[in-house]
Specification:
The mean pLDDT is 83. The chain is mainly α and 117 residues long. It is 39% helix and 0% strand. The chain is globular, with a radius of gyration of 17 Å. It has five helices and no strands. It has a domain at 62-116.
Length: 117
């Protein structure tokens, strides 16, 4: 945990993702016994909105989550910079495309809504 975390919010504003529910009912109905998928805004920040929803009960703190992600990347460069001699290999560069560390650092703290909305 990082200092300055925000409190969890009331879950009253959650909107069930009916498409995800239908897919789960068709292929993995047991998942719905423990979990319920909820929708987040599709504005280019959806990954951070989903993490915010999971951590805080609201997607409203997505910019806070972006900031935490940037702090994590700056604090633990060896986990994210595939060109660094100290890279620990948690991202398998043979299995997926991983952009340069500087491009990742530029993208993480930038709200996509400012670009796409």
């Amino acid at each position: 945990m990082y200092v300055g975390d925000v409190p969890r919010s009331d879950a009253a504003q959650l909107v069930r993702d009916d498409v995800a529910v239908a897919v789960l009912q068709a292929y993995q109905p047991a998942v719905l016994q423990l979990y319920m998928p909820y929708a987040v805004a599709g504005d280019g920040n959806c990954c951070y909105r989903a993490v915010s929803l999971a951590l805080y009960g609201t997607e409203a703190h997505h910019l806070h989550v972006r900031t935490l992600a940037a702090i994590e990347m700056l604090s633990h460069r060896a986990n994210y910079d595939i060109s660094d001699a100290a890279y620990v290999g948690t991202l398998d560069v043979l299995e997926m495309f991983v952009d340069t560390y500087s491009r990742l650092l530029d993208a993480v703290p930038t709200s996509q809504c400012a670009i796409t909305c």
